[in-house]
Every structure is written in C-alpha cells, then in structure tokens.
Design brief:
By secondary structure, the chain is mostly helical. The protein has two domains: 1-63; 70-255, Multidrug efflux transporter AcrB transmembrane fold (Up-down Bundle), CATH 1.20.1640. 74% of the residues lie in helices and 0% in strands. It is globular, with a radius of gyration of 21 Å.
C-alpha cells in the first residue's frame, strides 16, 4: 500500500508556508530559550544550526535531481558529505588553537566508507545514485557522531583525570598506554546512542529509513529489511570510529601541530 505523501507537511499555498515558518521559528526560539534558561550554553548554536539547516535543505532540494542524474555529481556530492562530516568532527574533538582537526578524516572515512563499499559490493544496496547518496550520508553521519561523542568524552576524561594519567606514567607506562587506561571506558559511551536505537527500534521510534521506505510504497517487510541493514551497519561504523578516535587521542595527534 502506498501511503500518500500529500498533507504530511503541506506547503502548497502561501498560507501553508507562512504557517510552517511561524511554527518552526517558535520551536527553535523555545529551544534556545530553554537552553539559555538552563545554562546549557548552546542557545546561539541552536539558532545558527536551524538557519543553516533551512538554507542547506533548500539548496539540496533544488539540486538533488540533477545530482542523481549524473554519477560524477553523485560522487562529488558524496565527497562533500564526507568532507563536511570529517571537518565538523575534527573541530569538535581537537582542542583549539590546534590544527589537529584534520585527523577527523581518519575515523570518519575509515569507519563509513569501507562499510558503504561492502554494502554496495555485495548488492545488499544497489549501486545506483539514488541509493548511494542516502546510504553514504547515513553512515558518514553515524561516523561523525561517534567521533564527536568519543572525542569529547576522551578530552573531558584527560582533563578531569589528569592525576591518574600522571600516576600511570610514574609507574612506567607509556603516554599512549596511560591515556588509554583512563579514557577507554569514557570513549565506549559513544556507542550507547546507537545501541539504544537498535534495541528499541520499532518499539520507541520508527527511524527515517523505515518510514521513508513505507512512504515510498515499499512493503513493511522491505522497509524493515532496509532499516535493519542501516542499524547494523551503523553499529560497525560507530565501533570503528570510536576505536580510531580513542587511538588517535591516546597518541595526542588531535592536539598536535599547534598553530603559530
């Protein structure tokens, strides 16, 4: 059964568009107010993120048809996704003013791209542009999130447990081993969101791939198969990204290459 897409979020008339803009503005404004009132410190970032999302989705929505008509443009778009995710994760992890953010490409690319290649090479995901773009996007996004969460937890642990690191060094451990001893458990927390999502899928949430397939006319079984592939692939992506982020952080490469 094909579920009609019309009416899910209507923007057919000027009144619909104005209503949507007003509602979204109120929601984002409330999020910023709550963050500021709670002292979370991200109220400005929430407004900026919403503004960027609006512009980016408008641009992507306008060009996606042309992108999917060309393999060259599809590959270029995928490369752009990888680059933005890597830079974003790297800048979240590397302490400023270091240039260590460039190492963000390692966990993001090494985690997401081989898994995407495996799915495409085995035929589980068809090698067509309309399948390549969302699959790469989902996996790269998962790698970015895992890298950011693991990296931030590691940096926090190194700061708050500096005495334990120094104690391990005094016992003869190498710098890398001392940092691993203190940060490994904290880095592992980056896997929790993916694990929770996988454990509760279909009970608490209906993820985007599943809903999208249903809206596109797929059967519930087909939609479930696609979502299962995505969730399991994300588990591997998150694990690889977290391990690599842990190793790079333990070796101090994210804080290397201080700017002059």
């Amino acid at each position: 059964m094909r579920i009609p897409l019309q009416g899910l979020v209507s923007v057919d008339t000027t009144a619909d568009l104005v209503r949507l803009i007003v509602v979204l503005t109120v929601i984002v404004g409330l999020a910023a107010v709550v963050s500021r009132a709670g002292g979370l410190g991200y109220s400005g970032a929430q407004l900026t993120a919403a503004g960027r999302a609006t512009v980016q989705l408008a641009v992507v929505g306008s060009v996606i048809a042309a992108v999917l008509d060309s393999w060259w443009l599809t590959c270029a778009f995928a490369a752009l996704m990888v680059s933005v995710a890597s830079v974003t994760a790297g800048r979240r992890v590397a302490p400023r003013p270091s240039r260590g953010w460039v190492w963000g490409f390692v966990p993001v690319c090494a985690a997401a791209l081989p898994v995407a290649a495996l799915l495409l090479a085995t035929g589980v995901v068809p090698l067509v542009p309309i399948a390549l773009v969302p699959v790469v996007g989902i996996l790269v996004g998962g790698a970015m999130t895992a890298t950011t969460l693991a990296g931030r937890r590691i940096q926090d642990a190194l700061r708050s447990r500096r005495g334990e690191v120094e104690a391990a060094l005094s016992l003869g451990l190498l710098d890398r081993d001392a940092r691993l001893l203190v940060t490994r458990a904290d880095a592992g927390l980056a896997l929790v969101p993916g694990l929770d999502q996988t454990r509760t899928v279909g009970l608490v949430t209906l993820p985007g791939a599943f809903v999208g397939m249903l809206l596109g006319g797929a059967t519930p079984l087909q939609a479930a198969a696609v979502q299962l592939v995505v969730l399991v692939a994300l588990l591997l992506v998150a694990a690889v990204a977290t391990v690599l982020t842990l190793e790079l952080s333990a070796r101090g490469v994210f804080s290397a290459a201080r700017s002059a």
